[in-house]
Amino acid sequence: MEVRRLAWAGLEISAGGQRLVVDLVEDFSRLHGDATPNGQVPAPPEPRSIHAALLTHLHRDHADPEAIKRVLQSDAPVLRPERASGQEAETALVRQAEAELDGRGLATRIVEAWETVEIGPFEITALPAVDGFGDPQVSWSVAAEGCRVLHAGDTLFHGWWWLMALRHGPFDAAFLPAGGAIVDLPSRQPPSSLPAGMDPGQAAVAAKLLQARQVVPIHYGPLHEAPNYVQVDDPPGTLLAAARAAGVEARVLVPGERFRIESP
Questions:
Q1: I need a surface site. Which of 12, 95, 175, 247 has the fewest CB within 10 A?
Q2: 200-209 and 161-168 helices cross at what angle (nearest 10)?
Q3: Could you tell me if 17 and 47 are in contact, meaning their C-beta atoms sit under 8 angstroms apart?
Q4: How far apart are CA 156 and CA 37, in angstroms?
Q5: What are 40-67's pLDDT values in tens digits?
């Protein structure tokens, strides 16, 4: 299995001659206008080259329906969590991506937690996750060719790690959020003084509970900016130190870097 880190939380996973993407985003203009930081958005997959797309949730920094439509092969599936429900203020953070996903004619499929879907060489399982703003979210276990990785979106720390390891572990690599951002959004007031996703120390602990051979930080960097999004200092460096203290191997991938995973 080969993994390429994409922008922000995105991954491209290849095995058995097929490829899938997780949380693919190319258009960050809603976050930065025309000033996307150099080096943070690597070259996207080629058009019509991807066999499936996975979405952990439908926030704009994780879901880009136009990019998904461009890279997917005809009729390739988009696996996603359940739809958000409620009044306008309740669905404010996912409404735009939901509308764009509906308008692209994509073959979407809702996958419940603990449900497994097989696509080509991939065994894909939705696992529990907790969104920092109350929107539906899952993590994804992706297995192929004797290897298994976990992509945890931007989940909070939770109590399912042990069950995830017992039912689907151990994981050869766990791609875990590590930015630990304090977020202040108009639709979620009053703001919380606690992080909206895992910080590096929590990610290191989660990796240990998951029995992950390696932990790789995602969901950090300059694609969100203060003052309404304040991350911890040096998320990758802090994670390396926290993982070392927890006895977990860690690896940092820059956007665009590839990582070959061998079966143990």
A1: 247
A2: 40
A3: no
A4: 26
A5: 889 989 999 999 999 999 999 999 999 9
Q: What is the mean pLDDT of the chain?
A: 94
Confirm whether pTM is higher than 0.85.
yes
Query: Cis ω on the peptide bond leading into residue 255 (within 30° of 0)?
Result: no
What does the alpha-carbon distance between residue 196 and residue 132 come to, in Å, rounded to a whole number? 4
Burial category of 194 from C-beta neighbours within 10 Å (exposed 0-12, middle 13-18, buried 19 and up): exposed
CB 212 within 8 A of CB 248: yes
Listed in sequence order, the DSSP H helices in 47-136 are 65-71, 95-103
| Phi, psi torsion values for 226, nearest 5 degrees | -65, 160
CATH architecture of 2-260: 4-Layer Sandwich (3.60)
Q: What is the pLDDT of residue 264?
A: 78
Residue 162 amino acid letter: W
3-state secondary structure of 149: strand
- Cα dihedral sign for 90, 93, 97, 103? positive
Phi, psi of 109 (to 5 degrees): -145, 125
Residue 51 DSSP one-character state: S
For residue 187, name the pLDDT band (cuts at 50, 70, 90).
Answer: very high
The pLDDT of 127-152, averaged and rounded, is 97
